[in-house]
Amino acid sequence: MDSILQRIDDKEADLIALTQDLIRFPTINPPGEAYEPCAHYLGERLKKRGFDVQYVRAHGTPGDSDQYPRINIIARKKGGRPGPCVHFNSHIDVVEVGKGWTKDPFGGEIADGKIYGRGACDMKGGLAASIIAIEAYIEANPDFPGAIEISGTCDEESGGYGGVAYLAEQGFFAKDRVDHVIIPEPLNKDRICLGHRGVWWAEIETHGHIAHGSMPFLGDCAVRHMGAVIDQFEEKLYPALAEKRTDMPVVPPGARQSTLNINSIHGGQSEDYDGLPAPCVPDSCRMVIDRRFLIEEQLDQVKGEITKLLDELSENRDKFRYEIKDLFEVQPTMTDKEQPVVQAVSSAISDVLETQPDYVISPGTYDQKHIDRIGKLKDCIAYGPGILDLAHQPDEYVGIEDMLDSAKVMAKAIHNLLNGDQQ
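Structure tokens predicted for Succinyl-diaminopimelate desuccinylase (423 residues):
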């Protein structure tokens, strides 16, 4: 293993350049920009290193179009002997830039041992580290057993339906093809992420009656009805959620309770035009909610807490009418610590970093949900460089030393998994 670790050190400049190149693809989702050139950049690199490369477009998935095709790359290299398959999955999409940056979001600027840019931490640094780890391992072990796969996938930031979900439906994560999956999400180099909380997104719409804004008494304001919904959340729901606690090792600690975020709210006429709005009483108001729940909770109970409050308003508030629509739902998932991939990465962290790993659960979901639920593959974790709190923030960065250390852990984990040495 020492020769592999030295190879990774020797590849530091390549690791930096690869990370910078990936950041410079503005793969913003939505709408799904630059997916195709980013995927082909990865494919050309891996072809040169002997990988069989496939590009898979997720036709018909949300957002897929000829202008913004959902292009995924899957690269596979078989070893010289029979053995298991280790798969590294990274998403190539990033969220919007947002405000507050002091660096070029797509410049890949280096300062103080860090590479800055949107997606540096989440998760192009992890993707680059996994590629360097795999390349170093293969160079040192050209006759390795089994197979190694790398995927760069779409749309993780919007649910993963054009990426891992689609690939899982097509059999790319079937147990007769893949044995172990590592997702290099930014959870810190000494932590193993076993899974994530559950999520339910829904849209609540309150209804009213349109009238002239100078005579609101002739109408019924849907926004005021939504205000009553928010009051119920503040008075009843939020205190109840704060009492729900989990034994899951969720990080940060504030996420060890159930949470609800109001993602957006809008009522009345849109203001996305020049000029003054029309003087109307709004007859509709919509709210999107993001409910994160724990492995100890059942999804039907989670939904029931909301509908109970809405039904009470229907009974007690004059003219209150509502509709609720499911947008997105994912069950919590947690991999058992005794699974081979957990043991292999744990051993690698102990050997490379000379520390025992922390086991954590992510507060938000990531693509493990599809590998678990659709692919039926339980031997899956997230492990990668980067600080989770930096994800989606301005001046996002990934540490170069952290990427090197994580690449060494990944290489050691590959060795452990392909050779059946998890301890």
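The radius of gyration is 24 Å.
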